[in-house]
Amino acid sequence: MTVLSSALAFDLGASSGRALIGELTDEGGQPALRVTEIHRFPNRPVQVGRHLHWDILLLLQEVKAGIRKAFQQGCAVESFGIDTWGVDFGLLDANGELLGNPYHYRDPQTEGLIEEVGALIGAEELYEQGGLQSMPFNTIYQLYAMVKAGSPQLQAAQTLLLTPDLLTYFLTGRKVCEFTMATTTQLFKPVERVWNTGLMERLGIPSRIFLEPVLPGNLVGSLADVVCHELNVPKIEAVAVGTHDTESAVAAVPAPEGPFAYLVCGTWSLLGTELEKPIISQEARESAFSNEGGVGGTYQLLKNIMGLWILQECKREWDERDKAASFQELAEQARMAPPFRSMIMPDDARFYGPGGMTDKIQSYCRETNQPVPESKGEYARCILESLALRYRQALDQTERLAGRRFDRLHMVGGGIRNELLCRFTAGAIGRPVMAGPVEASAIGNILVQLIARGKCADLQHARRLAAASFPVDTYAPPEDNAEWDFAYERFKELTGTL
Predict the structure, then answer these.
(1) How many CA atoms does the CB half-sphere of 218 hold within 13 Å?
(2) Is 245 a catalytic residue?
(3) Looking at the structure, do residues 290 and 357 belong to the same domain, yes or no?
(4) pLDDT digit string (tens) for 179-234?
(5) What is the pTM of this model?
(6) Can you give the residue range of the structural domain that contains 387?
(7) Which of 245, 347, 359, 480 is flagged as catalytic?
(8) Domain presence at residue 451
């Protein structure tokens, strides 16, 4: 085996981050990508008074540790890229210094602002211009909250950098705004591919702080001399990958050429399809779909779904008062619990915030005249079945909007480790589920680095490399899907989404 090229990917999620080495190899004339995790670290928000913040400097230290480890292990790394969750940002002053800790997207400062901004601008106009599902954490609402509070930070700010761009700036000294992250702000016009300065002016948000976006695959700059000296490493190039982790994950979907449907599954679930142009229509707005920029000049028509956050919060609650159970143990208990006993709408607003998740599920079930879950297995089954049925609903909507039917669903991300969820999803949609790879965001991050450095020709070439390098498990639906079809009709009735 010959190593042809090496890249370092940092994939930061809402609860943890990891550094992975990607090696492009030649194995008997067959190119392959080998990915190895070298560093993993927690990502814990910090409560300060009423506000919830990211510990951005600790994250920077962990990224530096990952760079140091890569070279200590003898890897000939040529480039690195960083992808993270969307919407959050840091503000820099005129000297390029950080003005306070970035807010966490679950900070309560944006409560009620979707309605307030909608009243000022109009929900239809917001969607026509931004093409995004209005979610309380979107950058537009975070900045408007700062405007309303008369934030001194916002008044002093000269530059806004979204989270992955902020970390890259700390390492290279280069300020850039990557395109896929820009499209998560709800302050960007996806059709024209420009910032919505008119909307910013109407909301009192200073347009001067926004940089012109660069497309994924652009070289940003190399590690700063001071960082190289601190870590005792050589200069390596930073690449603007698909810095929004969803877009990196979609870049790694091992789908054949042509339209495909995907589900990026983790704390959040993102279900959609890849298109050449955004779809901004009344039906898309009413179905709460977003148009986010993707790798290779594409757009992702997708729907945000609450995801495994609900189960994660239940587990955290149980672990605090009982002997800790693994997610695998919870899945086995769910498998043994009675099917379709209780259902919830995963996107109900009550499930958004942390804490008291089992009580929230109980209240939902009582309000909808359903049996209240009692055991951990019953809670877990309720959550997983409800997610699978919500996926079916989102897939149906995606097909209507895109004007095509998909014969399978590609699931990627950490959530596919939950085999029961994969099986339930295949049952709910009545079609095969192709599950893999798990580390899709990091793999997509590495693939874009390889494209940027001329090691992969384009996105399709990169996806073929992913398909040849990583296993994919197939989950077939049951031969008789009547039980799932009946459950889906009941789900729509219970959730008021007929």
Answers:
(1) 17
(2) yes
(3) yes
(4) 999 999 999 999 999 999 999 999 999 999 999 999 999 999 999 999 999 999 99
(5) 0.96
(6) 253-436+457-498
(7) 245
(8) no
